[in-house]
Amino acid sequence: MHPDVQALLALQSEDLAIREIEARRAGLEPRLREMERARRAAGEALARAHELVAAEEKAQRELQARIAQHKQLHERNVAQLDTVRRMKEATAAVAQVEQARRMLAEEESALQAITRRLTELRGAVEAQERALLELEEQQRVEREAVAEAQREVDAELATRREARAGSARRIERSLLQKYDRIRSARTGGAVFPLRGPSCGHCDTSVPLQRRNVMAARGSIEVCETCGVLMYAVS
Ligand SMILES: [Zn+2]
């Protein structure tokens, strides 16, 4: 086999290996993205639980302020009751006191309902916090495993790329450029042997004279049909 062909085939096998390693590295990405998504979802759930607690606490504060106000009012009404003398005024004052007492009782029971809801909502916050912590712990282990796998793949890639550079140096510049151009546009190989009288990739037959030149000189030619590099097998 012609040395050019040999060097080119060595380079091609390095390139295919590099491509395979790069695919393996890319294969680690979806898991990282999935972990990130799960982490974000858990964080958002916790934020929502916090928001619900904050809203309920606001309602609680407002109701507590209203109750305090109504209590004062009620106490004033009760005090006034002692000062009224006339029957008609007394009846009105008692009705006012009763009405305020009922309103206060309703507000107190509404406050109890809020307090119960707050207990539940704070429990939900704690559950979300625990879930987030568990997820982070679980992901920490997994991220380390992925990072370790990435380091291994990167080391492998670095070694391969160095070997590739060595192979590339053994190839004449214009041929290397041609090869790189063809390779970057394709997913499979770029260099194929003639198969019988035809291109080993697309099976289009190559004129006899051209084949003879390829066999005699060991030259590497571009297939006019599919654009790969072809060489004669001697
Ligand atoms: Zn072809």
What do these coordinates show?
This protein is mainly alpha-helical and 234 residues long. The protein has 2 domains: 11-171, Helix Hairpins (Orthogonal Bundle), CATH 1.10.287.1490; 176-231, no CATH class. The protein has helices at 3-26, 29-83, 87-169, 173-184, 208-217, and strands at 191-195, 198-199, 221-222, 229-231. A 4-stranded mixed beta sheet has the order 2-1-4-3. The chain is rod-shaped and about 135 Å long. Bound molecules: zinc ion. Zinc ion (ZN) binds next to loops. Residues 199, 201-202, 204, 223, 225-226, 228 line the site of zinc ion (ZN).
Detail the topology: elements first, then pairings:
Elements: H1 3-26, H2 29-83, H3 87-169, H4 173-184, E1 191-195, E2 198-199, H5 208-217, E3 221-222, E4 229-231
Parallel strand pairs: 1-4
Antiparallel strand pairs: 1-2, 3-4
Helix pairs in contact: 1-3, 2-3
This protein binds zinc ion (ZN).
The site of zinc ion (ZN) has 8 residues, from loops.
**Mean pLDDT, all residues:** 94
Our estimate of the beta-strand percent is 5-15%
Top CATH class of the largest domain: Mainly Alpha
Number of helices: 5
N-to-C SSE series? Answer: HHHHEEHEE
Secondary-structure content class: mainly alpha
CATH topology of the largest domain: Helix Hairpins
Instruction: Write down the overall geometry.
Output: rod-shaped
- What CATH architecture of the largest domain would you give? Orthogonal Bundle
Small-molecule binders here are: zinc ion
